[in-house]
Structure to design on (330 residues):
């Protein structure tokens, strides 16, 4: 079985997405290394793989990479130097050296279509590789969002490298942020509002491309423009289950099994009616749509990048695999 993911497929998916509408490409961190601390024997191979990732991100036109602890495995100087060489803006508002100097920018404003998107990035408070320390991310994010608005940003997007619970608390305390992309816990999150902020996460390992579409001209509370489409998919799934349950009901021989299946069928019929009703509701408010695009073989590969990817992996091998939050048991 071929795994989903890979830089070449990501590049192909990004190119296709940009044909549909103006796009902003970002990463909320932990993109470069498999661990925050590397063994001496791993350093050369890990650096080569990370340079390939940065080079690919630069060519894809990433607008920002937030700094996570794993991105600092070779130190902040290495990251700043290599990212600059690749043309990848690296952001972190609240990471600082012991002397108070900040190795990375905290914000930037990017033109996307008719919008001026203000980007900010924060990391969870605490100690980081390379002697860096992250201060309170809430105060940094709140002040930065206000400053971005004052500088003309029409949309403010946060890259929050925080555990999900901490990120949600931060966003409730920083109402000037329109949307946030999370990383740290490695789990994908369907886009949904947290207070006034729309929150999403694509998960890690590059298995999928998270696509979040906004309609900046719309106003009001966040509303999922894709809700009718999702209700139609849910309805189709329920109808398949109903068909299976009805056929099973015809074959079972005990009253106990028939009773259980009748209850299941009644429940599924109720769910089908609810889903069908939702297909007719047209969302109103501040509209968004989101989806996770699995980077499977059907996406296709960027041929030149695929060759580079193969060359690096043939020489250095794949990186060790970090724990999978969906399958690994602690």
């Amino acid at each position: 079985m071929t795994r989903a993911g890979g830089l070449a497929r990501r590049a192909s998916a990004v190119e296709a997405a940009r044909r549909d509408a103006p796009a902003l490409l970002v990463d909320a961190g932990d993109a470069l290394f498999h661990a925050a601390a590397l063994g001496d024997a791993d350093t050369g191979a890990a650096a080569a793989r990370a340079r390939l990732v940065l080079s690919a991100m630069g060519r894809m036109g990433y607008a920002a990479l937030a700094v996570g602890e794993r991105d600092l495995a070779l130190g902040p100087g290495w990251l700043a130097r290599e990212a600059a060489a690749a043309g990848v803006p690296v952001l972190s508002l609240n990471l600082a050296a012991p002397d108070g100097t900040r190795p990375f920018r905290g914000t930037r404003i990017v033109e996307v279509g008719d919008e001026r998107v203000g980007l900010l990035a924060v990391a969870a408070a605490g100690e980081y590789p390379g002697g860096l320390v992250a201060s309170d991310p809430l105060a940094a994010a709140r002040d930065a969002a206000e400053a971005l608005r004052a500088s003309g940003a029409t949309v403010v997007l946060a890259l929050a490298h925080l555990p999900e619970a901490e990120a949600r608390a931060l966003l409730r305390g920083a109402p000037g942020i329109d949307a946030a992309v999370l990383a740290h816990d490695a789990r994908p999150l369907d886009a949904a509002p947290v207070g006034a902020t729309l929150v999403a996460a694509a998960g890690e390992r590059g298995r999928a491309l998270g696509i979040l579409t906004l309609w900046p001209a719309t106003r009001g509370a966040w509303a999922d423009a894709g809700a009718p489409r999702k209700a139609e998919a849910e309805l189709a799934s329920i109808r398949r289950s109903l068909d299976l349950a009805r056929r099973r009901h015809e074959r079972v021989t005990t009253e106990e099994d028939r009773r259980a299946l009748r209850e299941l069928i009644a429940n599924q019929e109720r769910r089908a009616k609810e889903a069908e009703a939702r297909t007719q509701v047209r969302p109103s408010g501040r509209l968004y749509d989101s989806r996770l695009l699995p980077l499977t073989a059907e996406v296709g590969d960027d041929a030149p990048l695929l060759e580079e990817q193969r060359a690096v992996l043939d020489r250095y091998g794949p990186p060790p695999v970090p724990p999978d939050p969906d399958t690994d048991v602690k």
In short: Residues 7-214+290-316 form a domain with the Purple Acid Phosphatase; chain A, domain 2 fold (CATH 3.60.21.10). The radius of gyration is 23 Å.
